[in-house]
Write a structure and sequence with these properties.
With 289 residues, the protein is of the alpha/beta class. Helix content is 34%, strand content 24%. A hairpin with a 2-residue loop joins strand 11 (169-170) and strand 12 (173-174).
Length: 289
Amino acid sequence: MVGAVDLGGTHVTAARIDTAAHRRIPGGTHGVPLRADGGRDELLAAITGAVAAAHTPAVRAWGLAVPGPFDYARGVALFEGVGKFESLYGVDLRAALADATGLAPGRFRFLNDADAFLLGEWTAGAARGHDRCAGLTLGTGVGSAFLAGGRVVDDGPGVPPEGRVDLLEYGGRPIEETFSRRALLAAYGAGDGFDVKDLIERARAGEPRALAVLGEAVGALGATVAPWLARFAPTALVVGGAIARGWEVLAPLLTPALADVRSLRLLTPTRLGDDAALLGAAHVAPAAP
């Protein structure tokens, strides 16, 4: 049994994980809402409090899925210029969690949240059995991950810089200026109270404008990632994130954009949902001493 954390833009979830069964242990999950613009003490108390609440003496290690920018080797937050958690800049989360649980700092291992998502799907979800796979998380922005033999690939000629699709451009502009929550809402011209889920509902109902906005954005995303997927040659691409909940709308738009990725045998939404990042984080938790 290990502990796992999923740190999102609006929440932190800590859970005890049965690594043999690849599932959360009943009664072992604690979630706390977060304010992305919260103060340092507020955010730190929420994160350490969730972990402390889920921790028991039987948990000897923790894996943590955390968005960037973050120093994953040192466990230090580097959030800056991303509109969330910026008050935590420079905070040593590894040391704070060690204090909260009584474990040695070395019992905590951090990884990127998109990498954790794909590792979870590779371990026990949609990408299981695929030696080479890729993942996209579509929500506030575009997250990405590439695995070969269960190892994260974030450099080399077959993947984007740092393995990050969000660093790529489409039409001379960052891809997130075309495909992201804010880009989709701006393209649709939505008013207050309207969100991506509403856009997807309108597309699902067949509204031409909603379908056109999504079609252009998804086509741009596909055109941007397809050359890299062709180089990396995954057999599976797993798509998660809030926007992917409208898979029946997205799939017919994304599939033709990836037609030239000859290696791809499976294009699928997440099978594990919110558990994917937790199971991926648990997968990298340090082995028992």
